[in-house]
Amino acid sequence: MHTMSLPTTNRGVLLTLWKLGGPVTIQILLSSALALVDTLMVSGVGTAALAGVGVVGRVYFVLGMVLAGLSSGTAVLVAQYAGARRLRAARGPIFLAVLLGLALTLPMTVVSLLWPREIAALLSPDAAVIDAAATFLFWSAFVAPLTAITSTLGAVLRSTGNTRLPMWAGLAALGVNTVLNVLFINGNFGMPAYGVAAAAAATTVARIVEMIWLTIALKPGPLLRLHAGLRRRDADLVMGSSGPLMLKEIAWAGGILASTLIISRMGEKALAAYHLIVPVDGVMISAVVGCAVATGILLGHALGRSAFGEAADSARRMLRMVSRSAFALGIVLALLVQGLRHAGWLEGAIDPVLHDDALDALTMLCVGFGARAHNTMVTLGILRSGNDSRWLFQVDLCSMWLVNVPLVAFAALVLHWPLPAVVAVMTLEEVCKVWLFGWRVKSGRWLQKIA
Question: Would you kindly state where each structural domain of the chain is located, as residue ranges?
Answer without folding.
Answer: 10-443
